[in-house]
């Protein structure tokens, strides 16, 4: 079921590159909770399968030895409309789990009640 973007109060996106070779292969998770005054955000990206590469090989591809990144905090409310618009404009695969071939999975939560005007 595709939700109207106005009804969404939380989005969670998981992505795995799948069979992409290191040092490019990675996974990321983005969690967004829409509140009254800000977007509560958690983002993590982890580069995978690099143990078989030397530091020189990783650096030669334009990466560093510390490319993993995480952010947890609040971002301005104006981003809520942008995220919801992107969600509504995207076609999702409805994957329940992500395997070795990679892919993207989305979970969303909708508001089940509305304030009376």
What does this structure look like?
It is a single chain. This protein has 117 residues and is of the alpha+beta class. The protein has one domain. Helix content is 15%, strand content 38%. The protein has a five-stranded antiparallel sheet, covered by helices on one side.
CA-to-CA gap between the ends? 27 Å
Structural class estimated from helices and strands: alpha+beta
Number of spatially distinct domains: 1
Query: What do the pLDDT scores average to?
Result: 86
Shape: elongated
The total of helices stands at 2
**Low-confidence runs:** none
As laid out across the biggest beta sheet, the strand order is 4-3-2-1-5
Order of helices and strands: EEEHEHE
Radius of gyration: 17 Å
By DSSP, the count of extended strands is 5
Strand content: 35-45%
Largest sheet: 5 strands, antiparallel
**How helix-rich are the residues, as a percent range?**
10-25%
Task: Name the descriptors.
5-stranded antiparallel β-sheet, 117 residues, alpha+beta, 5 strands
Task: Give the SSE layout.
Elements lengths: L7 E9 L9 E9 L3 E10 L7 H6 L8 E8 L1 H12 L13 E8 L7
Antiparallel strand pairs: 1-2, 1-5, 2-3, 3-4
Give a quick precis of the structure.
15% of the residues lie in helices and 38% in strands.
């Amino acid at each position: 079921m595709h939700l109207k973007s106005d009804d969404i109060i939380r989005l969670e996106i998981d992505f795995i590159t799948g069979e992409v070779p290191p040092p490019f292969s990675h996974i990321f998770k983005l969690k967004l909770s829409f509140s009254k005054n800000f977007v509560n955000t958690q983002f993590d990206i982890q580069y995978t399968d690099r143990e078989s590469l030397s530091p020189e090989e990783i650096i030669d591809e334009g990466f560093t030895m510390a490319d993993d990144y995480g952010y947890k905090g609040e971002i301005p409310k104006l981003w809520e409309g942008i995220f919801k618009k992107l969600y509504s404009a995207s076609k999702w695969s409805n994957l329940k789990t992500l395997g070795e071939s990679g892919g993207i999975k989305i979970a969303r939560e909708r508001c089940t009640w509305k304030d009376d005007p």
